[in-house]
């Protein structure tokens, strides 16, 4: 068992070092700047893009919570406790999605008002 564990850890270490060799061939700063357009756009636009990406990610998480709640409801087997738990999860996901959409609308309103 110890031999297997040491082989696994050695392999993991060796494979993790290979990725740094690959990254050593690429100028990360230049590629990231050109990929995200950081060198060509103004800071205000960058902040708006960051907020939009963050809210988009949170929206995906809220939809995932709703889907997991629906799945829990389907596999509850008629148990009242499991159905109630799934219902609470779906309600929390819908409330979270509403908050995310409202915050997106507020950010859009503030940006359009300020500029």
Main structural class: mainly alpha
Classify the beta-strand content into a percent band: under 5%
Helix % is: over 70%
Give the helices and strands as they follow along the chain: HHHH
Alpha carbon gyration radius: 23 Å
Poorly predicted ranges (pLDDT <50, ≥5 residues)? none
Mean pLDDT: 82
Q: Which geometry do the CA atoms define?
A: flat
Counted by DSSP, the helix tally is 4
Query: Based on the structure, what is the oligomeric state of the protein chains?
Result: single chain
Q: How far from one another are the termini?
A: 65 Å
Total tally of structural domains: 2
- Biggest β-sheet description: none
Number of strands: 0
Give an overview in words.
The chain is an all-alpha fold. The protein folds into two domains: 1-38; 41-115. 85% of the residues lie in helices and 0% in strands. It has helices at 2-23, 28-36, 43-74, 80-114. Helix 3 runs antiparallel to helix 4. The chain starts with a helix and ends with a helix. The model has no long low-confidence stretch (mean pLDDT 82).
């Amino acid at each position: 068992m110890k031999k297997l564990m040491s082989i696994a850890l050695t392999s993991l270490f060796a494979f993790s070092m290979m990725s740094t060799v690959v990254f050593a061939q690429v100028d990360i700063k230049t590629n990231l700047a050109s990929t995200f357009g950081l060198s060509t756009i103004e800071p205000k636009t960058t902040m708006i893009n960051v907020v939009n990406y963050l809210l988009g990610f949170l929206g995906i998480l809220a939809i995932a919570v709703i889907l997991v709640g629906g799945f829990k409801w389907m596999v509850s087997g008629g148990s009242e406790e499991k159905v109630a738990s799934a219902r609470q999860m779906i309600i929390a996901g819908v409330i979270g999605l509403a908050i995310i959409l409202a915050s997106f609308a507020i950010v859009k309103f503030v940006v359009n008002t300020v500029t």
